[in-house]
Amino acid sequence: MTTATRTTAEADAMRRALELAERGPATGVNPRVGCVILSPDGEVIADGWHRGAGTAHAEVDALDALDPGAARGATAIVTLEPCNHVGRTGPCARALVDAGIARVVYAVADPGPHSAGGAQTLRDAGVDVESGVLADEVEALLEDWLFAARERRPRITVKWASSLDGRVAAADGTSRWITGDHARADVHRRRAAADAIAVGAGTVLADDPALTARDDHGALLEDQPVPVVFGRRPLPEGAALRSHPREPILLAGGDLGADLEELQRRGIRSLFVEGGPTLATAFLAAGLVDELLVYLAPALIGGPRTAVGDLGVATIADAPRLRISDLVRLGDDVLVVARPAHPETPTPGRA
To answer: Which end of the chain, N or C, is more open, meaning fewer C-beta atoms within 10 Å of its C-beta?
Structure first.
């Protein structure tokens, strides 16, 4: 193949690998990875993807579809750098070398301290290696997993629903429902996409939330976030959370950094925080919010029940600045998606 032909074939194969990766579990400990194997002539001869913890990695899944020796001289196109460690399965970099793969093209480097280094292992074995093909697309697919691996904590989304004047409840404490059906359906969809959903113990005692992801008819969606409760007060025996399909995780809440490390250890890569003003304020004050979802209803309530408490902003120059990444009309309501204007530079390649 000419260089141009090879480049086109490899880019097309990476797109196919990305499609395969999307078939894997969207939440949990392991990343979604796809692999396509090209013959020396650029023809697809096998593909595979990772189906979840304990199953074959994408590279091995693809190799297993080939007869012995059929991969010799071939090119492996992989969305993530082949792993270099022994976990529940062996190192993919070594499997590719043993199969006789001559070239490996991957999109994004593996940031894990134990799993990284596959590219160097391949090069040391004489395999031609290229990285960065369709990197932006793969980064978008693996956003939560890559963030957690690089930052050593889950990616935090804080959500609230408020009136236009920033109130989350009326004087008597009522808050159902500030927003309409379309906004609530969007919240449930986003809950289902998260590894875990968090509230404070005070919210459990005051509102008795179920913290489930439900459809328009109230039925449970297939994917359910793990409920997390911050605070030392015990859950009441009859709390709705005790009927959640997933076992709740109870954390003290006194040290958010330590609590987030514990969630990371348990395989939580994305955390959806819905716990009311106290918990939202704690995460914001600690600089631990990576995304804000603010659902605004066309209503005015007034009074002291604001969405966020004291952040220690004494003058306007000290106010944390955000950038609006999306505005979504949801029936009569509006969703504002915002992220820190100047996010911290990720800790490169360490998880």
So the answer is: N
Q: Which pair of structure tokens corresponds to residue 149?
A: 């691996």
Instruction: Tally the C-alpha atoms within 13 A of residue 236's C-alpha that lie toward its C-beta.
Output: 12
Please list the active-site residues: 59
DSSP string for residues in 282-351: HHHHTT--SEEEEEEES----SS-BSS------SGGGSPPEEEEEEEEETTEEEEEEEESSPPPP-TT--
Residue-wise pLDDT tens digits, 241-300: 999 999 999 998 889 999 999 999 888 999 999 978 999 999 999 999 999 999 999 999
Closest to 178 measured CA to CA, from 305, 262, 295: 295
Write b or e for each residue in 71-110: b if 16 or more Cβ atoms lie within 10 A of its Cβ, otherwise e: beebbbbbbbbbbbbeeebebbbbbbbebebebbbbbbbb
Query: What residues contact 316, with CB distance under 8 A and at least 6 apart?
Result: none
Instruction: Find out whether 332 and 180 touch, Cβ atoms under 8 Å.
Output: yes
| Span 282-292, pLDDT tens digits | 999 999 999 99
Q: Please state whether beta strands 333-340 and 270-273 pair in parallel, antiparallel, or not at all (unpaired).
A: unpaired
The rounded distance, in Å, linking the Cα atoms of 247 and 162 is 29
CA dist 291 and 157 (Å) reads: 5
The DSSP bridge pattern shows strands 34-38 and 75-80 to be: antiparallel
Based on C-alpha coordinates, what's the Rg of the chain? 23
Token couple for 218 = 């109230």
Nearest in space to 30 (alpha carbons), one of 49, 48, 52: 52
Q: What is the Cα–Cα distance from 228 to 155, expressed in whole angstroms?
A: 14
